[in-house]
Amino acid sequence: MRRTPPLPAIAGAWAPLPPGMREDPAVRRRLSAPALRTFFSIARAWDLSTTDERALLGWPPSSTFHKYKSGDVAALSFDTLTRLSLVLGIYKALQVLYPEPAFADRWIRMPNAHATFGGRTPITFLTDTGLDGLLQVRRLLDGRRG
Q1: CA 83 to CA 58: how far, in whole Å?
Q2: How many structural domains is the chain composed of?
Q3: Rounded to two decimals, what is the model's pTM?
Q4: In a domain, 112, yes or no
Q5: Coil vs helix vs strand at 115
Q6: How far is CA 13 from CA 52, 59, 86, 89, in A?
Q7: Which of 47, 52, 54, 90 has the greatest number of CB atoms lying within 10 Å of its CB?
């Protein structure tokens, strides 16, 4: 059995994976369950619908999604792990930008006049634009954090 090197750890954040580790199923398997548990905690805080959750995850089949929710998780794809990492980063940025946790959690559902959103709510923008939207919002919030 091949031994997998320990994953890099940064307090409370996903560290970039060294080259070659992204393809390693053992690494992805080790990250998958904690990443999904964190995602579903954020989804509860943001009061997301099942449709919103599936959209943020990249539209897994319904049966697969419900397995994820029940904790039955195999190694997720790199794409899904990237999406989860972006959602975690957006959540963290909101908690830093808005010290009132209830407001930070509501931000995702508030109409936003920023040009990126065009008056839509961030969650509508994210579910409409997929991975690209997650990247845009993450960059926007990280830029605001400085």
Answers
A1: 8
A2: 1
A3: 0.84
A4: yes
A5: coil
A6: 23, 25, 11, 8
A7: 90
